[in-house]
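Handout, section B. The chain below has 426 residues.
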Amino acid sequence: MELHVQQAKSIRGVVNAPPSKSYSHRAFIIASLAEGASRLKYPLYSEDTLASLDSCRALGCEIEVKEDECIIQGTSGDLKTPENVVDVKNSGTTLRIMTSVASLAPYYTVLTGDSSLRKRPMHDLLQSLENLGVSAISARNNGKAPIIVKGGFKGGTTAINGDVSSQFISSILIAAPYADEPVHLKVKGNFISRPYVEMTLDIMKDFGVTVDQKPSNSFNKNHEFYVEPQKYKGTEYTVEGDYSSASYLVAAAAALNSNLIVKNLNLDSKQGDRVILDIVKKMGCEVKLKKDEVEIHGHGELQGIEVELENSPDLLPTVAALGAMAKGTTHIKGVEHARYKETDRIHTCALELAKLGVSVMEEKDGLIIQGGALGGVVDSHNDHRLVMALYLIGLKVGKVKIENASVYDVSFPNFTHIMEKLVTGM
């Protein structure tokens, strides 16, 4: 599928932020492990989150999908061995969380995905699980999917590097309540993307599981988690709006003359990507915060900034697009771990921005971008976030064609429909 994006005069209107992909993943999986039924209100049904639902079904959970809610009959942790290989498609979150969860099923579970997913690193997680009595191996012995998980989660003490993926930490924590013994998890070194782990702990608490923490300090360099054997309890849970997906709405409004209200955004959210509001404000956009909504007034001009995205790597494509449309230099730092997403996002952002006439320098952990984007033909690299970021540039400068663009369905299925309703003069 190709997307042809024409220049827009402005952004106007009121829109609901899509439901959070991160919260939906976690809520689906935790509800499937819970004791009793759960009613999940306003979850996100996208290609990625449906991969989590299908994985839970494969492990024996009964799930009823409705338009505005999902009813899940929990398994109390008594999972069954899947009849077939579990294909999680392109969902790294599903692969990583379900690797730990699959150890709660008897016998063997095989998890795999598409060619992009099979390039994503899993070694640190597999090694950490081994110390907890979990046998999870890479079928090709390269530290990547397909992953073969043998039933059995003993528990005990393990450690994991904090600078590769927070999903590894969330994976162990989500399954830990069902281990035979308490789980003591030490996060070594720099704890990146920590807000995503805070989200995990938030949902675990809502489903009745408590986790003790010992934060790192000058004496203890590790952040430590302690999880006693417990069970999640079925509950009614409302999925909050997604700052990652809303970032494209906010960024579009910031770059153009605009008056946009984005509803369903929890201003006290644990989501690290809420920093997008501070970023566009620093670049020169007016931002007004109200209860559960944000009002954006854009003036059509942005200034380049220096920004640290260590705790919000999913914002890299959005901020890179903003930098390409801004005056002056935008320096994005602290996102080396974004190289291990659906694509090497530092490299693919640099590659595609250059096709639009942008002067961009690729660094080990970020990008230096000189504003001045023009039209052109770009490719998605099958990365949903890159598609939506490049679309924003098309709205600003016009005549942008995005090839292989349909992958925005991974996280924001009605993205183009919503944008077309909000823009004027396109």
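Note. The first helix runs from residue 21 to 33. Compare this with the example in section A.
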